[in-house]
Input
Amino acid sequence: MRKQIWKLHSWIGLACALALVVIGFTGSVLVFHEDITDQLYPELKFNASHDAEVARMAPSTLATIVEERFPDFWIRGWLLKYESKHRDRAYLNKRGEDEWYILHIDPYTGESGEAPIPIGKTLYGWFVDLHYTFFADHWGMALTGIFALGFLFLGISGIYLHRPFFKALFRLRWGKSARIFYSDLHKAIGIATIPMNLILGFTGAYWNFSHIIHEWIEHQHEEEGAVPQEFADYRLHLDQLDARANEVIPGYTLNYIYFPTDEDPNFYLYGAHPGAHRLNNPYGSTVFIDAKTCEISAYSDLREAGLWSRIVNSFEPLHFGDFGGITTKILWCMAGLSPAVLSISGVLMYFKRGRRRK
Output
C-alpha cells in the first residue's frame, strides 16, 4: 500500500510541478496585492490634503459623476472602501461590450483616474487571471481546479508517507549526498506548511469547481443583461439602499453593490453583519432590493445561515491569510512559495533516484 501511494505521490507531483510553481508564486503576490498597488500606483490613494472628517458623497452623486464623465460606460458594481487609505472602486462595462473595467474614485471629492482600465490589464487582474485560469477562462479554471486537487492529494499523501519525519522536522543533512539533502528539504517544508497547504488546496478547488458548475450548468442558457433603459430612475434609490438593508439586518455594513440590468432589475448588496469576526469575509450577508420599487425581495444574515454556509464564508480570509494582519499574510505568502520549493526538490529527488537505480 505504501509503495503504491509513493508512486502516485511522485507521478502526481511531477504532473503538477510546473503549474504549482505558477499558482504558488502568483498566490503569494496576491496576498500583498493591495500593498504592492499602493506603492506602484500611489495616485489610487486619497489626496494628501483629504480631511478625514469630511463626509462621503451620496452614492447617487458618485454614480452621476462617473456616468457623466465617462458616457461610453455603465456601472456594473461598486466596491465601497471605508478605510481612510483607499478609494472606492467602480466596476464598469463599455456599452455594447462584455469586458469589465475598473475605476478608482475618491468618495469624498469625486476625483478619479483619467479613464477606466480593463481589469485584465491591472496588476491585480493579470495575476488573478494567471492564478485562477492560466488565461484560459473556464477551461483554465477547470485545469487549475484539477491541479488544486492534485496539491491536496500531495499534502495528504505526504503526511502518510513521512509521518515519522515529525521526530526530526528541521533536520537537514548538509554533508550527505544531494539526494538526501533534497529529501530532507522536501520533507521539512512539506510538513511545516501542511496546514496552510491543505487550506489553500481545498478552498481553491472548491471555488473553481463551484464556479464552473454555476456557469456551465445553472446559467449556460442565460445571456448577459443590458443596461436598464430607465436607469436614471434606478439611480434615485441608490441613496436608500444602506438604510433599507439596515431595516432587516440592523448594524449592517454595506461593502459592495451589484447594479441592476434589464435581465435582472435588482440591486444585490453584499456586506457584513454587526460583530463579524476576522474569519467572516466582508460580503457574507446579502440583501436583494428591487431597483424599481426599492422593496426588499430577499436577504440572508450570515448569523442565521447553516453550518456549511458559514464554513464557506470563511474560505476567503483563510485562502488569502488576511485575517490576522501582517503576521498571517507573511505566513501565507511563504506558504504560497512552498509549492515551488516542493516541486523543484521533488523533481530533483525523482531524477536523482532514477540515476541511482541505473
Summary: The first strand starts at residue 73 and ends at 79.
